[in-house]
Amino acid sequence: MTESIELTVQSMQAYGPAHDHWGIAWSGGKDSSATLTLIMWLIDSGKIAAPKTLTVFYADTRQELPPLAIAAEQIMDELRERGIAVEVVRAPLDKWFMVYILGRGVPPPNNNTLRWCTRQIKIDPMEQALRDRLDQLDGQILMITGVRQGESAIRDRRIEMSCSKDGAECGQGWYQQVLPNAKGLRGRIATLAPLLHWRVCHVWEWLKHWAPRAEFGDWSTAMIADAYGGDEAEEINARTGCIGCPLAQEEKALETVLALPTWSYLAPLRGLKPLWRELREPQHRLKKAGAERLKGGPIAKNPQRMGPLTFDARLMALDRVLGIQAQCNASARYLGRPAISLINAEEEARIRELIALETWPQGWDGDEPTGDTVMEVVYQNGAVQPLLFGEERA
Ligand code: SF4
Q1: How does pLDDT run across 271-288, given as a tens digit for each residue?
Q2: Judging by DSSP bridges, how do beta strands 384-385 and 377-378 pair with one another?
Q3: Please, which residues have CB within 8 angstroms of residue 111's CB and are 6 or more apart in sequence?
Q4: Over the stretch 314-337, which tens digit does the pLDDT of each residue have?
Q5: 123 and 70, same domain (yes or no)
Q6: pLDDT in tens, 284-293
Q7: Is 211 helix (H, G, I), strand (E, B) or coil?
Q8: Number of folded domains in the chain?
Q9: Dihedral in degrees, nearest 10, Cα atoms 365, 367, 372, 375
Q10: Is residue 254 in contact with ligand 1, taking CB distance under 6 Å?
Q11: What is the three-class DSSP state of 378?
């Protein structure tokens, strides 16, 4: 632990002084929370010199696990009490996860063709927040991220973007790799991952036993450590991301939280992941009837591709999510525990408005057949395989 902190101090001493302005990309997960609170302590204790300005950018997706979202609120209060500038970074309402799926009708993300979520709810808003901040500053900003890959990564000199991997924190690798090359930011952003070499047990140790102590800053990080499995954090090695993330194989972080008696009332949240999977089924979606021509050019690669969610599917899913939220909150009231917000009144109103306005994603009109309609098969070369059976031919 002491060695890991010492290496972090050395990397901050090597790169920090070259930049007057620092930013910390924080998403409330274990790695970025450890990074944030450690940097604060290193500055407070004089182990590293403070920059001229320091801004903490909290990436709020509204999809975080409740104990993490609550801890983030507390840490934000603690930062503001110390006079640290904290910016809450969010996408515009129509691009929030729930509104985009249930209002606009874009299917839940997946690992293959449709991974829209990380860029939309985490990266684009962070880019915009940085552009706005840089408008007020001279020179570069050093963006500090919580990318952490352990000792083998240091040896291999690689930073992985994959955040569907166990142990990773969704978004942090993207902040590290994508931000410095983003439009309007090139040349004005440098990134640094000062906990790159930390092992998960160090992160847990810091969050659970060090950071909460007065001498290390009295931070509200213990709840974050517990959410990752406390003493067993290293074996569990849960990744950090949205509740019900459709890209993750297992919900290790959620299951770890639900195993704690104080959070077991959130068990209905288990219903989100299967709902996102169900929504990708053909009966809930439209599909293109034939081959599409790309702006008068070649035929699109995937004729008869599946597309957006039908209005019935969106309303069914909205009802299910609201039901999950109501169940959790009824138990919360009964037990005197914190309530959760999956879809707030503003989001619900906007979702219903978008459905009432018959909103479809770009390239879709709503008169396409549903995905389960039996049809002739159209191939990319334009060939058609007629139906062998079925009423359509009669
Ligand atoms: S945690 Fe999952 S759903 Fe959330 S942004 Fe990352 S990949 Fe997308």
Answers
A1: 999 999 999 999 999 998
A2: antiparallel
A3: 164, 247
A4: 999 999 999 999 999 999 999 999
A5: yes
A6: 999 987 666 6
A7: coil
A8: 2
A9: -110
A10: no
A11: strand
* 97 and 211 both lie in a single domain: yes
- The answer to whether residue 168 sits within a structural domain is yes
For a ligand 1 pocket test, name from 121, 239, 254 the mutation site with the most ligand atoms within 8 angstroms of its C-beta. 121
What tokens were used for 1? Answer: 């632990």
In a domain, 251, yes or no: no
CA 170–ligand 1 middle distance (angstroms): 6
> What is the model's pLDDT at position 294?
64
Assess whether pLDDT exceeds 70 at residue 155.
no
pLDDT at 378 over 80: no
**Nearest Cα residue to atom 4 of ligand 1:** 242
Q: Are strands 189-192 and 285-287 parallel, antiparallel or unpaired?
A: unpaired
The span from the CA of 264 to the CA of 260, in Å, is: 6
At 94, which amino acid appears?
D
> Looking at residue 184, what DSSP letter applies?
T
Please, are residues 316 and 324 in contact by the beta-carbon 8 Å criterion?
A: no
Would the CA dihedral through 148, 150, 152, 154 be positive or negative? positive
Domain that holds residue 360: 270-364
Q: Which residues, at least 6 apart from 283, have a Cβ–Cβ distance to it below 8 Å?
A: 313, 370, 371, 372
Write out the two tokens for 63.
């999809």
CATH at 35 = 3.40.50.620
